[in-house]
Design brief:
Monomer. Keywords: Cell outer membrane, Chaperone, Lipoprotein, Membrane, Palmitate, Protein transport, Signal, Transport. This is Outer-membrane lipoprotein LolB. It is a lipid-anchor. The structure is a single chain. The chain has about 200 residues and is α+β, with helices and mostly antiparallel strands. The protein has a single domain, classed as Lipoprotein localisation LolA/LolB/LppX (outer membrane lipoprotein receptor (LolB), chain A, Clam). The protein has 4 helices and 11 strands; from the N terminus they run H-H-E-E-E-E-E-E-H-H-E-E-E-E-E. It has helices at about 5-20, 30-40, 110-120, 125-130; strands spanning about 45-55, 60-70, 75-80, 85-90, 95-100, 105-110, 145-150, 155-160, 160-170, 175-185, 190-200. It is globular and about 55 Å long.
Length: about 200
């Protein structure tokens, strides 16, 4: 058998094997309904990943390692840049948030969006992101468009000025959670690849 033929056969076997391990459900809408209920009960979680942000208007970009811990409504977010360039730290809840930039003193405000915009020139909707990273629409914004994949998980979402595309999921403790997320707005392009999930 020629090498090219062997290669094609191996690809077919791999795809078939994957399909057997993750069959397409008869009712994706029911899977989505049940999946939402499960995720909404997850109050405490941690993730580690690679985050890149491109500010379109300012023509600036940055990338680094993201650590996000969410505990009973309190979040600790660290965005660490390579080669010892420092890190951005965001800590807060629904009432108060503190931002610390490299080589600067911490600054406190009541809104993470306004705080980020005033200090960095751009803003991320942190209160919505803590839903989006789980693969859920946020109840804080109206949903303009919601598209599920063949397995009943969120694939595309439009809320506010943001388009969120879920490119890949990973099975964690019997649940499928996002592994690769693209988020786009008129001001920002955000890419998040989640390498590690922990939740309870």
């Amino acid at each position: 058998m020629r090498c090219s033929t062997i290669f094609i056969v191996l690809i077919i076997l791999f795809i078939t094997s994957c399909a057997r391990h993750r069959p397409i459900p008869a009712d994706p809408q029911k899977v989505w309904y049940d999946h939402q209920l499960t995720l909404q009960n997850i109050k405490n979680w941690d993730l580690k990943g690679r985050l890149s942000i491109q500010a379109i208007k300012e023509k600036k970009s940055g990338s680094g390692t993201l650590y996000w811990s969410q505990k009973n409504g309190i979040y600790d977010i660290s965005w660490i840049f390579p080669f010892g360039q420092g890190k951005v730290v965001l800590h807060g809840d629904c009432n108060l948030v503190t931002l610390q930039l490299p080589k600067e003193k911490p600054v406190t405000a009541t809104s993470p969006d306004h705080l980020l915009r005033s200090r960095l020139g751009w803003s991320l909707p942190i209160d919505s992101l803590n839903y989006w990273v789980l693969g859920l629409p946020t109840p804080k914004l109206a949903t303009k468009k919601l598209l599920l994949d063949s397995w009943g998980y969120l694939e595309n979402l439009h809320q506010g000025n943001w388009h969120i595309h879920y490119q890949k999921y990973k099975k964690i403790k019997q649940q499928y959670l996002p592994e690769k997320i693209f988020l786009n707005s008129p001001q920002l392009k955000v890419r998040l690849v989640i390498q590690q999930w922990n939740f309870s």
